[in-house]
Design goal:
This protein is about 50% helix and about 25% strand. The protein is α+β, with helices and mostly antiparallel strands. It has an 8-stranded antiparallel β-sheet. The chain is elongated.
């Protein structure tokens, strides 16, 4: 169980609850209005439907956050604040504007606020257990190109780090998006390898950077007819440098999606979190292997 699991669980439950409320308000506003308001005005159903649409949007945001294995404490606290504002608004309505509601309406507003308050409290409690991942990730967009970098310090000498980084068949054991790696030909600069994805898809890569003991890089042949992903260009670089208490390695991925400017921007926005997760998991898995190699 990750440090974010509890927070993500309550965000998911909050998302489902918000989505349910949103659906009810959107599709049953006309039926609900007379039960909620003592003297429902003509625009009451429209107001309820608008609130329902807002809840559905909020539910979508919560769902995306709940899917993020590396959600930050700050992001959870933002949701807690929004939930708190809902509760505060409900208290104000019941305390100062109770006359506009029926008895049933007051009961519903109070019950909903109590559930939202429960989520706020549980999310806040869970946020205290969230720790930032050790790998440092930077993902940015430059002229339609996604540049993703992760850095990780490790308690191992550079030779152990280099040996693990250049063990190409073993790369599939630490990279969640790779199931198999085959070295096709050569060593060092110009080496060719074939990588396989989790569904059996594959592609070729050629080493275009090689500095023994320091760095290497691959360019992926996205121009191939059977290349399975929507990238016009894709390359990666791996480096290691000595540090006082071990080493630091970094991974840099440069990806240019296919399509027009809008399509590339949309793809990058959707792919950023996936890239971040993949890089953090890879850096942590590699670090564990490097430190084990140092001890053996």
């Amino acid at each position: 169980m990750t440090a974010t699991s509890t927070a993500r669980l309550f965000l998911k439950l909050n998302s489902q609850y918000s989505a349910l409320g949103g659906v009810v308000l959107v599709f049953a506003a006309g039926v609900l209005a007379p039960h909620l308001f003592a003297n429902p005005v003509d625009w009451a159903p429209l107001g309820l439907r608008s609130l329902g649409v807002g809840l559905l949007g909020f539910a979508a945001v919560l769902y995306l956050l709940a899917k993020n294995k590396f959600i930050t404490k700050g992001a959870v606290i933002e949701i807690v604040v929004l939930d708190g504002l809902w509760v505060l608004g409900s208290v104000v309505l019941v305390a100062f504007f109770a006359n506009i509601f029926t008895t049933t309406g007051i009961a519903i507003v109070t019950l909903v606020a109590m559930v939202v308050a429960f989520f706020a409290v549980m999310q806040h409690a869970a946020s205290s257990k969230i720790e930032q991942p050790i790998p440092v990730v930077d993902i940015r967009l430059e002229d339609g190109t996604l540049i993703a970098t992760v850095k990780r310090t490790v308690n191992a000498p550079t030779k152990a780090v280099w040996d693990v980084m250049t063990d190409h068949p073993a790369y599939a054991e630490v990279a969640d998006n790779i199931s198999k790696v085959e070295v096709l030909s050569g060593e060092g600069l110009g080496m060719k390898r074939r990588c396989y994805g989790p569904k059996g898809e594959s592609w070729e890569e050629t080493c275009d950077l090689f500095e023994p003991g320091q760095s290497y890089g691959f360019v992926i042949h996205t121009e191939a007819e059977d290349y399975p992903y929507p990238f016009a260009e894709l390359s990666g670089q791996w480096r290691v440098e000595p540090r006082q208490l071990g080493s630091e390695f970094d991974i840099r991925i440069i990806a240019k999606p296919k399509g027009n400017a809008l399509a590339r921007w949309l793809f990058v926005m959707m792919a950023k979190q996936q890239f971040k997760t993949i890089l953090i998991d890879l850096a942590d898995a590699w670090a564990a292997r490097m430190e084990n190699k140092r001890q053996s």
